[in-house]
Specification:
Blueprint: E1 15-16, E2 26-27, E3 35-36, E4 39-40, H1 41-45, E5 47-50, H2 51-55, H3 78-96, E6 100-104, H4 105-108, H5 115-136, E7 139-144, H6 163-182, E8 187-190, E9 196-197, H7 205-225, E10 231-234, E11 244-245, H8 250-259, E12 266-271, H9 272-277, H10 282-291, E13 295-299, H11 318-330, E14 339-341, H12 352-379, H13 382-389, H14 396-402, H15 408-418, H16 428-438
Parallel strand pairs: 1-2, 5-6, 5-14, 6-7, 7-8, 8-10, 10-12, 12-13, 13-14
Antiparallel strand pairs: 3-4, 9-11
Helix pairs in contact: 3-5, 5-6, 6-7, 10-11, 11-12
């Protein structure tokens, strides 16, 4: 492995300096050992680096060539280049104090079209990653396979109408699961980047969804038979690049998992920008998953209010994240996962140091949001206002209704006897001000 300061020279380990600090390379809120609601911030937040955006992204877009010309991408041989990239990644994560990372198979090393050669490359880099993990203490939060970038997946992977393509997807998932298991990965993620349709004119939707369910079942069975004890996550997204994806949002995914007998092994990985693309708030998607007991993990980012697509910007909206942390705390935290920064520095952020500013800002914002959310839960009347709003169901006829002992005609008679109900305020503005007060 390379010298620990090969790629980010002049940047020391990022430390917590408190809210009075004006050092842009220091944490102002993220004191990893600070105890909040019975756990340290490090235990609550379980931050992870997204290997793909931070070390594979080049800043290119459909209208322009790459702008992120980082030295770890300049080596010709794919395995040597992958090792250099991994050296840079672990140097970066160690200096930030990130406890976890996540990857797709093709992030770790470039793939070609030969299944056996791809497996050989990934196995070589898995062994190299194991050395880095042992030396640094950084762990793998989850692994996954990229089943959407290669042209063979233009019509989907597990939902492709061509079985030969589905078989290639199976080969990739097997290799990615082998790597995840070998590295002690705590979870495994399925994101159906192209599992959907562009037109119903040429699509048998029922058959495609049945194929997806079968694919998830055989993948689960393989992992379990090879010692994997973690959770499998599904990451919802409504569209882009497909017109409609089968993992549209949290509610859709939960219904799919229930229909196909997968609830016991699978939970959800919620992404902020995917939630907003589905026409929901991030908080809504978290609440749906939490109410079902399936809030596994989150991908942290944000979109641009003027762009209706997945811009994957680093999170900095303290109000949005405070409301999100209220839901996460009341749900008891993540079920196996953590907070993965599935976000990329902007095209014109061209310095390696920009990677640090982006992650420091995101980590500080989440830490501040968690601290504020805990204070709201512990020191305000937030929970009391919500519980009082539903107090009519805590006794009498309301309790009987929840217990299932009232018939429709009973409801009619109760309404006729009681007369018009009093108007009760939802106190929305008060609660919005309350959140701002604790921020």
């Amino acid at each position: 492995m390379s010298n620990s300061s090969q790629y980010f020279k002049g940047i020391e380990k990022i430390k917590f300096e408190g809210i009075q600090s004006d050092n842009p390379l220091a944490y102002r809120w993220y004191d990893e050992q600070r105890v909040v609601a019975g756990k340290t911030l490090k235990e609550h937040l379980r931050f992870a680096c997204a290997y793909w955006h931070s070390f594979c992204g080049n800043g290119g877009d459909p209208f322009g060539e790459p702008t992120h010309l980082f030295s770890w991408n300049e080596i010709a041989d794919p395995v040597d280049r992958a090792k250099a990239k991994m050296d840079a990644a672990f140097e970066f994560m160690s200096k930030l104090g990130l406890p976890f990372y996540c990857f797709h198979d093709v992030d770790v090393v470039d793939y070609g079209n030969d299944v056996a050669e791809n497996e050989r490359r990934l196995q070589a880099l898995t062994a190299y990653a194991k050395q880095h993990q042992d030396a640094s203490g950084i762990q793998l939060l989850w692994g996954t396979a990229n089943l959407f970038s290669h042209r063979r997946y233009m019509n989907g992977a597990a939902t492709n109408p061509d079985f030969a393509v589905l078989a290639h997807a199976g080969a990739q998932v097997k290799a990615a699961m082998d790597a995840t298991i070998a590295l002690g990965g705590q979870n495994y993620v399925f994101w159906g980047g192209r599992e959907g349709y562009m037109s119903l004119l040429n699509t048998n939707m029922k058959r495609e969804q049945e194929h997806l369910a079968r694919f998830l079942q055989v993948s689960r069975d393989y992992a379990r038979s090879n010692g994997f004890k973690g959770k499998f996550f599904i990451e919802p997204k409504p569209c882009e690049p497909t017109k409609h994806q089968y993992d549209y949002d949290s509610a859709t995914v939960i219904g799919f998992l229930r229909q196909h007998g997968l609830l016991e092994d699978f939970s959800l990985n919620i992404e902020v920008n995917h939630a907003t693309l589905a026409g929901h708030t991030f908080q809504h998607e978290l609440q749906v998953a939490a109410d079902a007991g399936l809030l596994g993990s989150i991908d942290a980012n944000r979109g641009d209010y003027q762009n209706g697509w997945d811009t994957d910007q680093f999170p900095n909206n303290i109000n949005e994240l405070t409301e999100a942390m209220l839901i996460i705390l009341e749900a008891g935290g993540f079920k196996g996962g953590g907070i993965n920064f599935d976000a990329k520095i902007r095209r014109n952020s061209t310095d390696p140091q920009d990677l640090f500013h982006a992650h420091i800002g995101g980590m500080d914002t989440f830490a501040r949001a968690l601290i504020a959310a805990d204070a709201i839960l512990q020191q305000s009347d937030y929970k009391t206002i919500r519980s009082n709003r539903y107090a009519s169901f805590d006794n009498g006829n309301g309790k009987a209704f929840e217990a299932g002992t009232l018939k429709l005609e009973d409801l009619r008679n109760i309404a006729a006897a009681a007369g018009e109900p009093a108007v009760a305020s939802g106190r929305q503005e008060y609660l919005e001000n309350l959140v701002n007060r604790f921020i």
